């Protein structure tokens, strides 16, 4: 507390502030919320209550997002499960692995000609990377089953103890969202296109059926940040650049411009868009969006305008209004 007062010029005093600081933790609390996106972009708090307001805003966002992100994960797994079982008429992973998880074949260089050696080497690398991804997926799933059995998972125990293979629906239950994204990425183009169509994506926007997996990976970063209680309000949780296809599709479908996932508002748009595609009732999606608006409005009353404008970009209001119109 003395350090915050003397070195950071933050007003903090009394047993109440002491308990708040203990509850949020210095490193998780102050160190995590002292900047927006990167340490060089500091949030110049005048009082500890302002920092607490941002901390609470972030915590409330995680509470708001979590059930909807889990709903999306469950719904996507269910729809993709239905498609792959329908395609193979089997719930055996090995059958699915050989019939559908063979995207690497589309990168085969056999019988193809190339304009120069560099082009051929690039193509060969793509094939090798795709095949490696498929092999790694199988290793992940085997390891996942071993760990699940060792931890006493009921699904794994039921099948493996009776010398039976875990069916694909059971494997999906064991998968994290990130592992699920890698599974979808290994599906062949034909299967991915059908999944994309079943989710209501327009073919011209997703000719290679890559949109579902890209959405899964984008939401995975947010889901993991929520699960590990990391900071989410400034989207610092992004693991890598988000594919521009997602932004383009969202802009085309919703009419909202400037979706670049540099603000948490764009994740609200993505979640609402996917919820609409999995046919969640409009009133529930609208409630989710309005709950987000309420959190933003509450934050506005808790901190000075200069801080608020750093955290909530000026485009937020127009984007939310357009999103509600879309819904």
Structure description:
By secondary structure, the protein is mainly alpha-helical. The protein has 16 helices and no strands. Helix 6 crosses helix 9 and helix 13 runs antiparallel to helix 14.
Q: What structural class results from the helix and strand content?
A: mainly alpha
Helix content: 55-70%
| Cα-to-Cα separation, first versus last residue | 47 Å
Mean pLDDT, all residues: 95
- Evaluate the radius of gyration: 23 Å
Q: Which geometry do the CA atoms define?
A: globular
Task: Name the poorly predicted regions.
Answer: none
For the biggest sheet, the summary is: none
Helix segment tally: 16
How many strands appear in the DSSP assignment? Answer: 0
Q: What's the structural domain tally? A: 1
Name the helix and strand elements from N-terminus to C-terminus, one letter apiece.
HHHHHHHHHHHHHHHH
Relative strand content: under 5%
